[in-house]
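Section 3.1: Structural characterization of target chains.
Under the original work plan, the team committed to producing a structural model for every single-chain target entering the pipeline before any wet-lab resources were allocated. The record below documents one such target. The sequence was received from the expression subgroup and is listed exactly as submitted; it comprises 393 residues.
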Amino acid sequence: MNSKNEICIGVAGAGRAAELHLNALQRYTGVPVCYKHIIARRFEQVNAMKERYGFQNASLNFEDLINDPEIDVIDICTPPYVHEEMIIRALKAGKHVICEKPLSGYFGMAGDEEPIGLKVSKVKMYEELLNALDKLKAVVDESDCMFMYAENFVYAPSVNKAAEIIQQKKSKILYAKGEESLKGSSSPVAGEWSKTGGGTFIRTGAHPLTAVLWLKHIEGEARGEKITIKSVFADMGQITPGLSEYDHRHIAARPNDVEDCATVIITFSDDSRATVIATDTLLGGSRNYVELYCNDAVINCKLTMSDMMETYFLDEDRLENVYISEMLPSKLGWNKTFLEDEIIRGYTDEMRDFMESIYFNRKPKSDFNLAYDTIKVIYAAYKSAELGIAVTP
């Protein structure tokens, strides 16, 4: 057990990811947590989060988290192009690390023609990413601190129940399908490869992809089999730039050099398959699910668009502060209401696992290996889409 009475947390970033993590932490009180310091790029943003969640300090400098001897863990909720640097600096400073997805990516190098998503070969991106991952892995392996990969799908109650069934029945997943789709991102940099490392597949498809990889790992352990990835085949592109401004009015996606639709087929070493879908063309909220077709069962896991509650409104009077659904532009008419969102989508159990892993010095469920495998498959998919062939990651 940790010798301290509480875990001091520092947070880098003050956007939606930080909000989800902190909301989840506030729902869980099993391990005492001290909200020590939050940093972001803008004072108005970081000060608002400081007041909302009760942080002791707020600033604009990542060094403040590194240099604070009381901070035990740094939660990295920034855009992905700074993940690698922050991870390395935090671990070398003796801090545990929580990192929001994706682990890393390719964000450009000196001499690259811009925009890099259109001008730089995905083959080059894939090779450079592997080199960077090897260096990052060396730092993680050498550190005495924990790396925790913030992939909420792995902690979602429905996905965890699927894992329990597979463990108990020793079921064989013959085919898996997963999707996260919505109408586009609210982030102003979502359309820029240099900031996000890709488009809708790395931004949203990473979630169901990681869940499928994790569930196949659970299956392998239950059956005493080693299951690896044989090949990745992808089709990706841009649809929304061809729309007129009028036809584009309900869709937020504005891709510059990234994809807004992706379909990826993974073949595993046991010849089972998985299809992962991600698009920025879905209206009506966000769709998140994982479906498993097994030798002895069918398991459908829903994270959103659930049927626990429905609402019907003729107007939006006095509903300004009522959360109905993510990415929903209007609350009028019939809607499927999100209930206990942090729990259903896994954020509460995710942060519980991370805090307990630090406090009791045990391995987290979602670790560096899972983060590594996920980003490797994502970039193998980008390589495949460019070459038009299946590739071996």
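The longest helix spans residues 200-223.
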